[in-house]
Each structure stands twice: as C-alpha cells, then as structure tokens.
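User: Structure tokens for this complex, please. No commentary.
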Amino acid sequence: MKKGILLSLGVLLTMAGEASGWYWPPASTEILPASPSSSDVVTITLSGEWPNNCIPNDSSISAVSNGIYFDVILNYPPGTMCLLVITPWSTTEYIGPLSPGTYTVYARLLGDPSVPETYTPMTEIVVAEACTDQDEDGYGSPASGLCFYPELDCDDDPTDDPAECPSQGGSCACGEASCAGCAKCINPGAKEGPYSDPTCSDDIDNDCDGGIDDPTSLDNCSYPGAANAEASAYGGSSLTTSGSSNSLALFLVPVGAVILLRFCRKKK
Ligand SMILES: [Ca+2]
Ligand SMILES: [Ca+2]
Ligand SMILES: [Ca+2]
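Assistant:
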C-alpha cells in the first residue's frame, strides 16, 4: 500500500502520519500578548493546513534557558485511517511568566515518519520587565519601560509613609504642597527643597538622587541667606585686612620719609 493511499467508499484515505511534509513547519505562529512582560502568561498558537483530517491532536511545551520548545504531536492508534482532505488545524500552549529577555520559539512534529523530529525556529519573544509600582506613583521598582515613568522608584513601599502623610490614591501629584513629605511620593520626579519645605527636614531622600535633605546643589536645602551671609562675611574680612594694610602704609610712608631725610642730612 504505497503511501498508505487507498480508495474506499469513493474517498481517498491515508494512514495517520503518512504524507509528504509540505505542511510542516506550521504556517503561522501567534504570540499573545504580542509584547509580554515578566508578569504575563504567554499564549503560543501554531496553525496551518494539514494534508488529511488526522490533524495534530496533542502538544506540549517547555522552556529551557532562552528557548521555548513546542512539541506538536500526532497521537493516533496504529492503523488509524484518515480522509485525504486538506484540513485547517491549530494548537495552543501556555507558558510563563518568563523572566525578562529574548526567547526563541522552536516547534517540532512528533509521530509523522515523513517529517524529521527536529526543532525548527519559529519566532522570537521579547519579554520586558513588568511594572511593579506598589505605591502607585507611576515609577516602578525595578525600573521598567512598562511603567508610566521608566526611572527607578527608590522607595516603592507605601508602608513607609510617615504617620502624618495622608493616604493618597494613584494620582498623588508629587511636588504639590499636599504631597510634601509624603513617602508615597518618593521618586525621581519628586521635589526636595527649598530650605523651608518639609522635604528638607524629613530625613528622606525624596527625589531619589542619593542626597538626604542635602544643603548643597543636590537637594536645594541650603538656608537662602547662607550663601550671601558667607560671601558678605568673607568680603568684609577682606576689606578690613585691606584697610589695615592701607592705614599701615599711610603710617609707614611718612615715617620712612623722615628717616630718609635724617639719613641724607647726616651724609651732608
Ligand atoms: Ca512606585
Ligand atoms: Ca528630604
Ligand atoms: Ca535627594
């Protein structure tokens, strides 16, 4: 029975798993969601057309390192007869959540003697870092491009809120007076300073720049008059010194002149 083809009751039949391999690898690979994050379960669907109605009826999937291995299986009892009619097919598997990174999806057909049982690369999946934003200020920890803001939230713990900090929802507008000193607004977009602001005396790095109530250029928490007072003090001292020098010079010049005059007279 060459190729298992026979004519029975006016239709063409074939043995399951015996056909030429034009139908493999699958014509289509669908990934959902299309741009998954590390918190998503990824759905992978392979589909195409099959040369008979004994379409793949089993499958499995596994992930090893950065490879996702999808086995499509013909699991029919020996001697199963199939109609020789082109039949649409698809099979779906789920995997994940996956760590951030790039994965290659491979597919392999098992149970068909005419198709080598080797993996064929089908597509790639790029898994992004999920947005973990526990205090709902739009900044994540770790930093993620899937958050509203991509920068790192250095304190994403809402339980760190000071006792006096009112509970605020997801719309805490950082930098506003009502948010000043609110730990929920500790993020790279928050303000710290100026001097009189509570953010300059709360012992918190409100703006995630590494400085805490920093009086220098980082947090703008220096006393506004400090710079002028310092400059003024420095300049006054300088003038006094200069004045003393001038007075001394004014005193020394006539004394020197007298000494020089007496010295000249003696020489005569
Ligand atoms: Ca956050
Ligand atoms: Ca502070
Ligand atoms: Ca700071």
